Amino acid sequence: MATGIVKWFNARKGYGFIRPDDGGPDVFVHASAVAKAGRSDLAEGIRICYELRTSAAGRTFAEDLSIP
After folding, report:
1. Which InterPro entries is this protein grouped with (predicted)?
2. Could you list the pLDDT tens digit for every one of the 68 residues in the chain?
């Protein structure tokens, strides 16, 4: 499972980005993944664990979120 810090998340827009601990590019996170984790929002700066997935279009995104 990958880890990172929430760079920003806007519940109104329905998405945000995570800055991965491994120094790679920022990871997109959609509001649906946040809702599946039982939350409605993510606070900027919190540590988060996630699984990295790739869409059919080749874009990477975070799924299966958990907050340690």
Report:
1. Cold_shock_CspA (IPR012156), CSD (IPR011129), CSD_CS (IPR019844), CSP_DNA-bd (IPR002059), NA-bd_OB-fold (IPR012340)
2. 999 999 999 999 999 999 999 999 999 999 999 999 999 999 999 999 999 999 999 999 999 999 98
Judging by beta carbons within 10 Å of its beta carbon (0-12, 13-18, 19+), is residue 29 exposed, middle or buried?
buried
Strands 2-10 and 47-54: antiparallel
* Prediction pTM value: 0.93
Domains of the chain listed by start with CATH number: 1-64 (2.40.50.140)
Please say whether the beta carbons of 60 and 31 come within 8 A. Answer: no
